[in-house]
Amino acid sequence: MRHIPRKIAFLLIIVVLALLFLLPPVFAADIAPSPAVPANTTPAKVEVGIFVNSIKNLDFARGTYTMDYYVHFRWTDPAISSSRFEVMNGQPSGANALVENYEDKSGPEKEEWYRVRSDFTIAPNNRNYPFESGSLPIVIEDSSHDTTDMIYVPLVNESGVDPVFELPGWSIGVPGFSVINHSYPWGESFSQLTFNVPVTKNPTDAVVQTLIPPLIFCIVALISFFLSEEHRELIALRYGLTTSMFISAVMFNFSQLASLPGIGGLTLFEKFMISVYLFLAGTIVVTTLCYISLYTWKRPDLARRINWSGLAVSILVPVGVFWLLLAMA
């Protein structure tokens, strides 16, 4: 009877050892972590459409204009509750410049419509003045979601400029979109969308308003070459024509350039006016040489040669200088 407890103790030891070998795999199976579900790293897509109703107060020389336009946002990601955006290259134009016209967030596809009026400023490019052309951009950027959460996608077919609208003196081209990731030095990057409206100055208006007056000054001065240099009263008339046209050209040039900011170079108009100055100065120089030939040197034959040779030189030199200035641009 004394050996029975030893047998029982031996069996208990065997049972405990067996349990020690079996339990770890069971617990390991229970506590093993479930496989991680990869996070969705694709940013949500917010579709954006822009429709311009009108463009006002366009001053291309100074790079300022005002636009009245609709901005349309559409998205499906439930993580985005609203389209918080800001206009990067403009400021609100007066009271009620931003009005939410419509929203629909009842279904899986959510939409918001805004009517916006903004005063814009861009860096002017007047090198081809008066034949200006360029783009009038609307630049918007999300103010709450960076590019890891959201990016803009243009709604090209739902954007444009009201076909009824006309911009006097300008032709409006086909608008276009561009989207970039705008990075900041503190490490964040936001989706930035630009809607460009191309405009071109009407060439007929540019010629009539800007180039025709100096050409008229030159034509009036040209008449002086056909006035006989052999009469003192006609010489005086020639001086009156040429000097008055030169002064008129200078005053007209100043009136045109008064509205243009400095660009660090010559505009097309300034190159043209340099040629006009050379022609008008040439008429004065030729008239002076004719007077000296007649009344100082007593050489009427030389005066006639100077007159007609001076006409050719007065035309060819300004034309050559104008093309040289164009080639140097």
TrEMBL record:
<feature type="transmembrane region" description="Helical">
    <location>
        <begin position="272"/>
        <end position="294"/>
    </location>
</feature>
<feature type="transmembrane region" description="Helical">
    <location>
        <begin position="306"/>
        <end position="326"/>
    </location>
</feature>
<dbReference type="GO" id="GO:0005230">
    <property type="term" value="F:extracellular ligand-gated monoatomic ion channel activity"/>
</dbReference>
<keyword id="KW-0472">Membrane</keyword>
<protein>
    <recommendedName>
        <fullName>Neurotransmitter-gated ion-channel ligand-binding domain-containing protein</fullName>
    </recommendedName>
</protein>
<dbReference type="InterPro" id="IPR038050">
    <property type="entry name" value="Neuro_actylchol_rec"/>
</dbReference>
<feature type="transmembrane region" description="Helical">
    <location>
        <begin position="206"/>
        <end position="227"/>
    </location>
</feature>
<dbReference type="InterPro" id="IPR036734">
    <property type="entry name" value="Neur_chan_lig-bd_sf"/>
</dbReference>
<feature type="transmembrane region" description="Helical">
    <location>
        <begin position="239"/>
        <end position="260"/>
    </location>
</feature>
<keyword id="KW-0812">Transmembrane</keyword>
<keyword id="KW-1133">Transmembrane helix</keyword>
<dbReference type="InterPro" id="IPR036719">
    <property type="entry name" value="Neuro-gated_channel_TM_sf"/>
</dbReference>
<dbReference type="GO" id="GO:0016020">
    <property type="term" value="C:membrane"/>
</dbReference>
